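From the thread on structure requests for the teaching lab: each student submitted one protein with a one-line request. Submission from student K.M.:

"Model S-adenosylmethionine tRNA ribosyltransferase from Chondromyces crocatus, tokens only."
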Amino acid sequence: MSPAAGPRTEPLLERLLHVDPHTGALLDATVGELGRFLRAGDLLVVNDGATLPGMLRGVTADGEAIEARLAQSLEDGRFQALLFGAGDARQRTEDRRPPPQLAVGAQVRFGPGLEAVIAEVSSLSSRLVVLVFSAQGAALWEAIYRNGRPVQYAYVPAPLALWDVQTRYASRPICAEMPSAGRPLAWGLLLSLVRRGVRLASLSHAAGLSSTGDPALDARLPLAERFEIPEATVRAVLDTRSRGGRVVAVGTTVTRALEGAAVLGRGTLLAGRGVTELILGAHHAPAVVDGLLTGVHEPSESHFELLSAFAGRDVLRRAHAHAEARGYLTHEFGDSMLLLAA
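Reply posted by the TA:
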């Protein structure tokens, strides 16, 4: 299938493939028709994380060019980051040069007011590090927004601006890349769902990087990610389930947060902050989420395996073949799929 070549201006006209995991039935629709598949009493949960301008070009103390992609904020000016060597930021990630070998204590300058020291080098890959920035608080965030850009994609011909990679309800800047399942959800559509009795709730999940350029590290994705679930969202989930409604997650980040929190709570969904290492897949029977709104992805991608928590692989392969035959578009700005029993 072909990837969408960038942001699209009519999100409600984008394609939506409804997949019934139980019967295997497939139905073509548009995003604007999402309400056809949701019932009064259902709960739609979104990730309100905003996308960081986390791609930083810099130079080491030895004068070597380097690029850092902030994977997630930790605390006290510390960020987990992925490093690349010199090159075009819009090259395919797997074609990028590796970074110069840097040890703990190495210094990197990313621009005015944005200097950092490498505090940790991961045992998983020398590309994955923890950066400690000299600036703190508002000064650090100001410097990141002044010097950084959002992650770029080789299949998008035009440079992406920060507003191109935000959902309409984005709030705190915690995402390395856009939680793209929610990208086409326009406010008018969400309001129409509410008028029909569908409830909305939100959580924050630090959506990580989708590719690292290191095959061994890619095989470990997604890495551990931070989340925060408000008490109001937990109440909404529990109330929905008690009334026979369905909990529909907008994206695998929402799914990972809710299911990961339930795992940490030993079967009980608890409010608060946490870090989840849960990897979704056929081995995981969802305890909280009944359905998933997600993008269209190729079977060769790790994201496809995550969907097998909600539908059998045979159903997913048929859905992919159907989408391919009908010209659905893939990747961050592509079309959508709803895995939800009728």
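TA comment: The chain has two domains: 11-51+159-339, 55-147. The mean pLDDT is 95.
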